[in-house]
What we know:
- The chain contains 23 helices and 18 strands.
- It is an alpha/beta fold.
- A six-stranded parallel beta sheet has the order 2-1-3-4-6-5, sandwiched between helices.
- The protein is globular, with a radius of gyration of 25 Å.
Amino acid sequence: MAATFCATLVDEWVRGGVTDVVVAPGSRSTPMALAVAADDRLSIHVHHDERAAGFTALGLGLASGRPAVVLTTSGTAAVELHPAVVEAHQASVPMIVLTADRPPELLGVGAPQTVDQTHLFGTAVRWFADPGVASIEAMGSWRSLAARSIGEATTGVAGPGPVHVNLPFREPLVGTAGSLPDGREDGRSWHTTEGRRVAVDRHGTERLTDLLDRDRGVIVAGAGSGEPDAVFTLARATGWPVLADPRSACRVPDFAAVGAFDAILRHEPTAAALRPEVVLQLGAPPASKVLAQWIEASGATIVAVDEHGRWFDPAHAAAHMLHAEPTAAVSALARLVGGRERRDDWSGRWQAAELAAQEAIDRALLGHEEPTEPGIARTVARELPEGSTLVVSSSMPVRDVEWFGALRPGLRVLANRGANGIDGVVSTAVGVALAARRTGDATVALVGDVAFLHDSNALLGIVDRGIDLTIVVVDNDGGGIFSFLPQASTLDPDRFEQLFGTPHGVDLRVLAAAHGLVTIEPAGAIDVGDAVRASVATGGARLVLVKTDRTANVAVHDEIHAAVAETLAALDTP
């Protein structure tokens, strides 16, 4: 009965668009593992480590928008999925989590590898289901269970996210599937679901008409900001600049686009001269604390737009929250803008500051023959081929790409910024690369050494997965971001190194070699781009290892910010 039950779920998942299943080996999950492996419509990715498996499924969903299934056995194996589930929850990434379980009679009696898996992930899932041990009496509900899990993971009232299906199995665990219950005709899914996409009309947006007529406004485009063409149409209609997070797809060459906003706003006179009256925040906020503090201090009216109803307002200052599909929202807002003539000096000031800042960043970096962390981020983002995906780790890499990455077309930037953790980054990149096999586009991950070590189990079997993934590791032998915090200047150096710098002393070349990865080590700044291009062109899974110094890194950041400030001071910004 278990084999038939599992085969039915698998068939219904395929009907609903599932293409990938990540399997962590285990015994109690045998019926489902055999069922997914028997269906040649699915791509199966086996991973020894459950936490890495969870983040691999997350990466597949992040890249494709389709939920991947991740399967584990019972006990602590299921618990290991929790970090990936939390990230999927907070980042609105669809995922179907399957945890095998002991049957009811083995719960609470000391049976091995048994924990309470009911609502194991708490409120971090969109939906929890435990259908009990498969029985013929419940056969009529099996297809509904599978189809609903897809619907709840993709179009539920809370938006996309993870669902948890807990599956108890009795022994024997190996069996043969019988006849499956009939599905819908023509291979259709058992349930068709629609998402909660609020219609954007004049009733929902007319209150914003007066705000859109203001001259001094800015559009902050974060992840989930909508189609760039629609965003820039609104920008041209309002005369407002677009402060573009790399994850927004709006960091492209356009008169309205501003990529160096963090560096610009660190220069206090320029920040004051460019203080806005209105801030339209599209999607998730960028990482820049400088930007967030500038918006909060500006006193501007803040309008926050998010498709999934997430409440992005850490300063508790947003005046209007618009929960709607972002492309439709900005298109509706553009239609509200009157035909009056706009002042050119507002957008012109922003464009002048952007050009000056980008030139200053380039000049400052040209003065360094050695690799620098801002230079690595700028080079990697610049050198990737059109259509590539860059997966950026939290901590310093995501900030360096945001702060120092120039405008360019054709680059997709992804990051785990739901919970902002550094765990699972390499596994997420593996999942993104697995999804990219269908398009043939390159995937590159930019991570720090601690994040790389934290997720080193992502390398298990990596060379045999048939993926093109270049992992660029910035190795400064510890936690580089802490050198920017007050702890670095207030603590005794030895204590700081013990608790925050945390040098690991691991030779990452040896670790990579143990997993069959070829490592390229660029010696100078000019070699970084060559190494990345060569790795991408060669294909397969490879490591580009770049050594830097944590103390010197702080000095380089200060030098760049000073160079930008000096250039901006020379501009006419009354």
